[in-house]
Amino acid sequence: MEMTNRTRLKFSGVSEIVSMSDLGLLTLTDETHERQITIVCEQAMAVQLELRAKQVPITDILLPEVLCKVLKQQANLNLEIYINDIIDGQYRTHVINKDTMDFVPIRASDAVLMSVAGNIPIFIDTRLMMRQSVRYYANSHGVSLPVNTLNNEMLDAALAQAVKDENYELASQLRDEKQRRSKDSGKERL
User: Fold this and answer.
1) Confidence of residue 120 (pLDDT cuts 50, 70, 90)
2) In 70-183, where do the E strands start and end?
3) Which residues have CB under 8 Å from 5's CB, separation 6+?
4) Rounded to an integer, what distance in angstroms lies between the CA atom of residue 32 and that of residue 120?
5) Per residue in 80-109, pLDDT tens?
């Protein structure tokens, strides 16, 4: 796994997706706070990260923090998290032992929680960051979400809503993304 051209990310906050109360958005920015990416997550994960963002004291005894403390006490692990691709709406993310270069796949939202709970640095491939990110505006009330970060269920729901709202330009973009994924999955089977 090549990790030479990468950008360090910082967890910036949590927001909700309007009209989808069971989902949240995690915002991560580059170190200069110029660009941001968003990661879609379940509401339960959004709540967990909101607790950490608000620095609620009980988090010190919750499982992610406790496991990170135990790992640091039992082994001198040199870990980092790396996001290097996006496939069917999911960021491909790994926890990497920098000393051995062993890596383990992890869901992106869990990786963000692990990063926050254990103070583990998180990076993204710079080309992916430039492709997926948008300009960061502090205290913004809305965020752009690239279509390719939606999972298939969200893509279907968004397409249905766009048709219902007669937003045919958006519906066309969503349909094109569904077709692209369908073609890609057909290539994988060959």
Assistant:
1) very high
2) 79-87, 90-97, 102-106, 122-125, 134-135
3) 125, 126, 127
4) 18
5) 999 999 988 899 999 999 999 999 999 999
> 38: which 2 tokens?
């968003």
With tokens 């990468």, the residue in question is 6
Rounded (5°) CA angle 131-137-143: 60
**Torsion angles phi and psi, residue 113, rounded to 5:** -60, -45
Q: Is the four-CA dihedral 86, 88, 89, 91 of positive or negative sign?
A: negative
Q: Residue 16 in contact with residue 23, Cβ under 8 Å?
A: yes
Contacts of 23 (CB under 8 A, 6+ apart): 16, 17, 40, 41, 42, 43, 46, 154
Name beta bridge partners: 104: 95
Q: What is the CA radius of gyration of the chain?
A: 18
On the question of pLDDT at 162 being above 90, the answer is: no
DSSP, res 174? H
